[in-house]
Amino acid sequence: MALKEGLRTKRIIWRLILLALGLLGLFLYGLPRIRYLEIYIPMGVCPSAIMSLLRDNFTGVLHPWARPEVLTCTSWGAPIIWDGTFNPDIAQQVAGQQNLTIGLTVFAVGRYLEKYLARFLESAEQHFMVGQHVVYYVFTERPAAVPQVALGRGRRLRVERVVQERRWQDVSMARMRTLHAALGGRLGREAHFVFCMDVDQHFSNAFGPETLADSVAQLHAWHYRWPRWFLPYERDVRSAAALSRSEGDFYYHAAVFGGSVAALRRLTAHCTRGLQRDRALGLEARWHDESHLNKFFWLHKPAKVLSPEFCWSPEIGWRPEVHRPRLLWAPKEYALVRD
User: Fold this and answer.
1) CB 3.0 to 4.6 Å from 182: which of 27, 148, 187, 337, for a disulfide?
2) Are 88 and 81 in contact (CB under 8 A)?
3) Is the alpha carbon torsion for 239, 241, 247, 250 positive or negative?
4) Confidence check: pLDDT of 6 > 70
């Protein structure tokens, strides 16, 4: 009798485990209604001791209490920038007084050039660092195919030729090496701060000097509410990008990162070394250069973190905490652009 009860209990436990795994699969990869439940995962609260000390080089005193429903600071005291926590007019004024030049790099290789580049640049002219000096750096294997975009006063576009890689994964992973070289060359001499962005997105609202800092990381729109143990870090301990279950702060998106030239040189050097080491061992991190970027920001905490409002995916659907998306992902058409 006891044996039968034991077997019955084990069957119930396994059924519950399978049910939990099924719901988890739906949550991660399935029905939007299931994914909507993630709004009930708490983001944490910024301690008042840190909140009162939050300042920014471009906006002065921040206003984290204006967004009590979201996490507005990190454990190491860096601000997480949400709409309403900063004064954009002050940021514009301070940046203008410093006479800054801001670089924006983007890779448009293969079919990504025709599909996305024109809209990316046109929307950047409308929303990216309006009123500031900007230099766009477009990296492509076909410079002659880069579209002509009307640029405002004090804004320039430079085109840099890169080698066409055999696989899209290699394009992604070669990006860090190429950026490191560019930051040590003309780009590094022209710009005071630089943002590096993916081309398959477009600006939809102001992306201004409030985003500037020595090092800037972007919360990944699909993962910003998830607990640390659930985040898609590289887990293969042989990889230079590996993080253990006890490591990691947030999951950062490689579609947007930035900072000073010196800080980005350190970031791109770290990622390049890690990628080269993995390749020598026949390894490839789960999310390629993004995995190595996350390892870098675990070891070297960013000075500023951008909320998901600054790089949002419409596929996620409506979220009450996302007030003004600044960048929107384009629909992913991998079969078209990656074959």
Assistant:
1) 187
2) no
3) negative
4) no
DSSP states of 170-233: HHHHHHHHHHHHHHTTHHHHH-SEEEEE-SSEEE-S-B-GGG-SSEEEEE-TTTTTS-GGGS--
Q: Which residues contact 39 (CB under 8 A, 6 or more apart)?
A: 225, 319, 320, 321
Task: Calculate mean pLDDT across residues 235-253.
Answer: 96
Q: At what angle do helices 289-299 and 168-183 cross, to 10 degrees?
A: 50
Residue corresponding to tokens 């972007």: 218
Residue among 201, 172, 186 nearest 287 (CA): 172
Dihedral (CA of 325, 328, 331, 332) sign = negative
Residues 6+ apart with CB under 8 A from 277: 240
Find all residues with CB under 8 Å of 286, minimum gap 6, and list them.
Answer: 232, 233, 234, 235, 236
Q: Which two tokens stand for residue 253?
A: 């998106």
Residue 191 phi/psi, 5-degree rounding, is: -110, 150
List the single range of 35-49, 122-136, 217-231, 279-293 with lowest mean pLDDT: 35-49
DSSP, collapsed to helix, strand or coil, labels residue 277 as helix
- Return the amino acid letter for 100: L
Rg (the chain; Cα; Å): 21
- Does pLDDT of 305 surpass 90? yes
19: which 2 tokens? Answer: 């049910």
12-45, pLDDT tens digit by residue?
776 666 556 555 655 555 556 666 777 788 888 8
